[in-house]
């Protein structure tokens, strides 16, 4: 039972605690993290690793005025515990409860929703300059950036600009040697070398100490002096890269030693220019299994039994297979069959369930770290050389590669396959992760084919069709959800061809994506009421099956488009554009999808029900539309008399 946590109304209360009490508080915070994971899945290992860092930051700065952004935001839980949200902590990731990421609507201490990685250095630099312009130059600005996020191109864009502006700006590199999976890349190797040093001061001081003992004189000696200086900086510290970017590098320091953290934060607090503080932490600190296996315990299943000293006795067994499982298995099969096929992911090997692909085909599996723009341009190069790359990236994260989709892929008309995991509503991950926009942003581009499987039976044939399509780039979206299927003899996947499951004259549902089973259930409800309702598995948003779409609009009293994506520019919009281009009256078309607002977090089924995208909601929409059309015809008949 927590004794100190319930008494914390805000970070100022921390300053009344003794060192011993702060140690106890850190333990209580970890206890609370374990307790929440016994209720529901949530981010875990990353939060265990930043408990002391969180406390040290709030003890050093006043973030009711100063600025703090956590990057990525899934390490926000300790921060929430000490910023007045302990009493609601057990509501984490539930409908109406606390969000699993920073949320400015919850607290003044959360400045941005940071669901992805790499932007904190830019936004904190912007906050610093904005505060100066608004007459608040005394405010500090701090970004905490994980080493997994650090390879993001935008991080170095920010560091480059910050080094040029030379403002007081603190970037903390939280180095736990992990992204979600173990980090990769040249920068990771550089940081690993930095871990080997025993020097806990910046490289410049070390170099000055060494060079003061060198008996060098004259012009030649000066040149030698410069060479030795540069070599010594490289030898003594891993921070030379950051020094060259204009940052005062300090570290690496122990991120779990609270007194040491406080000492160095106070040391760099008032440095007049940009500072990079390199902090070493352990992902999963305090829970043996989590520190030993931070990949599994990044977002583990619910804890069924917890033993003493936070030993996890057992995890809740996993549920049924998901769409991601079928996609990854199909990718593996195609890589076995065709040596030209490769797969690219952006630090989401585990999320995309590509571990077996990575193990069996290491020369054709490419994890490029959290660098989606590079991933897309990289895939374009592979495709240009004649190979068949699959870009396997979450829908919401692929948005970062928008310009490369345009410039390097669509404009060149290269056959890159985009498999967009987590499309639609991602449930408790909330608005930072909902993949609402890919239908709209993908169908903008000339040459792009935009597909979505209707159910489990469509996945493998559709993915094989995409890889075989060498004429253009192809996008295929699928949700973070358990598998469903409509029992039928599924028709062959052909470019721009919808699959008509059943026709109806009262209503026809045009379903784009894996809400197809819900649409079929809705038709069953309505047919039991005597209505003739058909359902079409659209399969393609681009090119659209114009023949089937126009036939539905012309023959059915009501046509309902259903998609798990934004209504603005989505599949329903494509249907209306098709009718408009053909000069067909489309007033009988009703669109169902995600409205023009950001959707909060809750279980996916809860969100679908709220938005009228479950079977009952779809059926109700059709009933209401038929009643409206009937009333309109009755009114016209009465007016004619």
Summed up:
By secondary structure, this protein is of the alpha/beta class.
Architecture overview:
Helices cover 40% and strands 16% of the residues. It has 24 helices and 19 strands. The strands form four sheets. Strands 9-8-10-11-13-12-17 form a seven-stranded mixed β-sheet, with helices on both faces. The radius of gyration is 28 Å and the shape is globular.
Describe the secondary structure blueprint for this structure:
Layout: H1 19-37, H2 45-48, H3 51-60, E1 67-71, H4 77-81, H5 120-133, E2 141-146, H6 153-165, E3 169-175, H7 186-195, H8 203-211, H9 218-236, H10 240-244, E4 248-254, H11 258-269, E5 274-280, H12 288-292, E6 303-306, E7 312-315, H13 323-337, E8 341-345, H14 355-360, E9 365-367, H15 372-384, E10 388-394, H16 395-398, H17 402-410, E11 417-421, H18 438-443, E12 449-451, H19 456-468, E13 474-477, E14 499-502, E15 507-512, H20 516-527, E16 533-537, E17 540-542, H21 546-555, E18 558-566, H22 571-582, E19 589-594, H23 604-610, H24 615-640
Parallel strand pairs: 1-2, 2-3, 3-5, 4-5, 8-9, 8-10, 10-11, 11-13, 12-13, 15-16, 15-18, 18-19
Antiparallel strand pairs: 6-7, 12-17, 14-16
């Amino acid at each position: 039972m927590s004794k100190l946590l319930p008494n914390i109304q805000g970070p100022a209360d921390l300053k009344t605690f003794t060192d011993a009490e702060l140690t106890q508080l850190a333990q209580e915070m970890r206890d609370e993290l374990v307790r929440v994971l016994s209720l529901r899945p949530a981010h875990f290992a990353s939060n265990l690793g930043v408990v002391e860092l969180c406390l040290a930051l709030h003890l050093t700065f006043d973030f009711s005025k100063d600025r703090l952004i956590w990057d990525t935001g899934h390490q926000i839980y300790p921060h929430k515990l000490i910023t007045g949200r302990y009493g609601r902590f057990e509501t984490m990731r539930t409908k109406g409860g606390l969000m699993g990421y920073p949320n400015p609507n919850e607290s003044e201490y959360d400045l941005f929703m940071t669901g992805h990685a790499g932007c904190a250095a830019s936004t904190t630099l912007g906050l610093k300059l904005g505060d100066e312009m608004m007459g608040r130059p005394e405010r500090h600005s701090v970004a905490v950036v994980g080493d997994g996020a650090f390879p993001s191109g935008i991080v170095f864009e920010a560091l480059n600009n910050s080094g040029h502006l030379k403002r007081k700006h603190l970037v903390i590199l939280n180095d736990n040697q992990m992204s979600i999976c173990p980090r990769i890349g040249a920068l990771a190797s550089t940081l690993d070398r930095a871990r080997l040093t025993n020097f806990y001061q910046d490289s410049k001081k070390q170099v000055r100490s060494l060079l003061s003992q060198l008996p060098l004189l004259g012009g030649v000696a000066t040149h030698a002096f410069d060479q030795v200086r540069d070599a010594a900086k490289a030898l003594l510290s891993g921070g030379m890269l950051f020094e060259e970017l204009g940052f005062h590098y300090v570290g690496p320091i122990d991120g779990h030693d609270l007194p040491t953290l406080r000492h160095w934060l106070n040391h760099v607090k008032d440095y007049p220019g940009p500072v990079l503080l390199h902090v070493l932490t352990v992902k999963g600190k305090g829970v043996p299994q989590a520190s030993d296996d931070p990949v599994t315990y990044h977002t583990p299943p619910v804890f069924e039994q917890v033993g003493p000293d936070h030993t996890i006795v057992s995890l809740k067994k996993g549920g049924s297979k998901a769409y991601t499982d079928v996609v990854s298995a199909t990718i593996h099969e195609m890589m076995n069959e065709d040596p030209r096929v490769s797969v690219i992911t952006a630090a989401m090997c585990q999320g995309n369930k590509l571990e077996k692909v990575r193990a069996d085909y290491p020369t054709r599996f490419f994890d490029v770290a959290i660098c989606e723009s590079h991933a897309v341009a990289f895939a374009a190069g592979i495709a240009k050389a004649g190979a068949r790359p699959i870009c396997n990236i979450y829908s919401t994260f692929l948005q970062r590669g928008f310009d490369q989709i345009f410039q390097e892929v669509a404009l060149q008309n290269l056959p890159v396959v985009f498999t967009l995991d987590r499309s639609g509503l991602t449930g408790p991950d909330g608005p930072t992760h909902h993949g609402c926009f890919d239908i709209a942003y993908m169908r903008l581009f000339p040459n792009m084919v935009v597909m979505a499987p209707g159910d489990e039976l469509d996945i493998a044939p559709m993915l094989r069709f995409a890889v075989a399509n060498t004429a253009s780039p192809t996008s295929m979206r699928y949700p973070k959800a358990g598998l469903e299927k409509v029992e039928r003899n599924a028709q062959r996947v052909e470019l721009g061809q919808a699959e008509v499951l059943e026709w109806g004259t009262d209503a026809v549902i045009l379903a784009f994506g894996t809400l197809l089973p819900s649409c079929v259930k809705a038709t069953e409800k309505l047919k039991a009421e005597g209505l003739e309702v058909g359902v079409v598995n659209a399969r393609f948003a681009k090119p659209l099956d114009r023949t089937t779409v126009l036939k539905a609009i012309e023959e059915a009293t009501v046509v309902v488009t259903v998609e798990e994506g934004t209504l603005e520019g989505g599949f329903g919009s494509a249907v209306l554009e098709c009718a408009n281009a053909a000069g067909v009256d489309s007033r009988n078309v009703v669109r169902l999808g995600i409205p023009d607002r950001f959707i909060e977090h809750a279980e996916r089924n809860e969100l679908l029900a709220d938005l009228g995208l479950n079977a009952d909601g779809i059926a109700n929409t059709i009933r209401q539309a038929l009643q409206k059309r009937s009333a309109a015809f009755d009114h016209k008949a009465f007016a004619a008399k």
